[in-house]
Amino acid sequence: MPANLTFDALKQAVAAGEIDTVLVCIVDMQGRLMGKRFVAKHFVDGGHEETHCCNYLLALDVEMFTVPGYKSASWTKGYGDYIVKPDLSTLRRVPWLPGTAMVMSDLLDHHTHEEVAVSPRAILKRQVARAKAMGFDAMMATELEFFLFANSYDAINESGYRDLQTLGRHNVDYAIFGTTKEEGVMRAIRNGLWDAGVPIECSKGEAEIGQEEVNAKYSDALDTCDNHTIIKNGVKEICHQHGHAATFMAKYSHERAGSSSHVHQSLWKDGKPAFLDPKAPHGMSDLMRHYVAGQLAYAREITPLLAPYINSYKRFVVGMFAPTKAVWSLDNRTAGFRVCGEGTKGIRVECRIGGADLNPYMACAGLLAAGLAGIEQKLELEAAISGDIYHAKRVREIPKTLGEAADLMSKSKMLRAAFGDEVVDHYVHAAHWEIAEQNRVVTDWELKRGFERL
């Protein structure tokens, strides 16, 4: 993409006065961009080598609260520093922010200079390296759905998040005229992200009132996750500039369908699709069958990586296009896993379990770990299920709560072997904290239900 910058091109742009700010970004546990705004001249003069951040950034909840109980960072340890190491291959302009470039960064231990084990980007990189050692390139794409609202973030906050009004007033799934009414902001999103070096393919109205979808080109796993994170941040910033708001909650209203982040995956070898065998049933190679079998075998254990919050599980509702069964099918949107591109070089498996609230690095790392385990163990693929899978009997269920899923993840021998105990315990602790916070807080639903009636 032309907007991606080499370091030399950045220096030239800074010297010419075209760029005066560089965003040095890391990814936190929630998949959000955190970091610093550098004076561009300082960045090119030496700031690009490294900077530092507090290690509490990988020990916070959604509300930036310092969660007790983490081994990696705590009050007892004094909340020291991580080294922030810019990955200069990710340099790019941010067209919607004047004079601004950005770079993704890795987190290193301040003493050993090794990548921080619980860092989402590092977790994915280790699974990508594992696939590479087996001779494969992990290729992925994530779809991103979100709801677009008429009012700004500040106005919605001041209203107490009540009486929310989406920009669209009715379901405009695939409708050209309906989405024309939202084109002012959606065009800015598509073109802004494209000019930032994110290979956006298209946007469309999704299957719920006020819902949108943005898709980027299939790429290697790390690039896909970097792009996913930039897309989410870009959508929010561009919406803010247009006086609107967007949410990537998995389920913002029980009266509406949720927002997903489907993950498409395949392995390639020497530039060719390793999942394709034209002579095999459905064109699925033995390798692909083992990979999908692994994802099915460990689907319940990796669910907290696909659905990390209490709210995530409210999306799994019969008849609203979010799956409830962790089974596979051929081109069937009621299954947790769908094989697409049957018999073509684009053959791949789509995981439909994840919501738009997932951290892409954690989700893709978990899916890749499960698939590679299936290959290593030569797991046999069960028969595909067809028809309305919502009502299939005696099949593998997606966990119904975060608590159930976290317990499964904690006991997962596969994940502990792939990620290490430190990583698994870290993210299980995050899940338990989310549950404890939800149990502590009195909700609007409880107040309305019980204030007068009890």
Beta percentage is: 15-25%
Low-confidence stretches: none
| Cα-based radius of gyration, to the nearest Å | 22 Å
What is the helix fraction of residues, given as a range? Answer: 25-40%
Determine the structural class based on helices, strands and strand pairing: alpha+beta
> How many individual helices?
14
The rough form would be described as globular
Cα separation of the termini? 61 Å
How many strand elements?
A: 16
Sketch the major β-sheet: 10 strands, mixed
- Encode the helix/strand succession as letters: HEEHEEEEHEHHHEEEHEEEHHEEEHHHHH
Mean pLDDT over the full residue set: 95
- Quaternary state reads single chain
Notes on the protein architecture:
This protein is of the alpha+beta class. The chain has 14 helices and 16 strands. Strands 7, 8, 9, 10, 11, 12, 13, 14, 15 and 16 form a 10-stranded mixed beta sheet that branches. Strands 1, 2, 3, 4, 5 and 6 form a 6-stranded mixed beta sheet that branches. Strand 8 and strand 9 form a beta hairpin. Helix 10 packs across helix 12. The N and C termini lie far apart (61 Å). The mean pLDDT is 95.
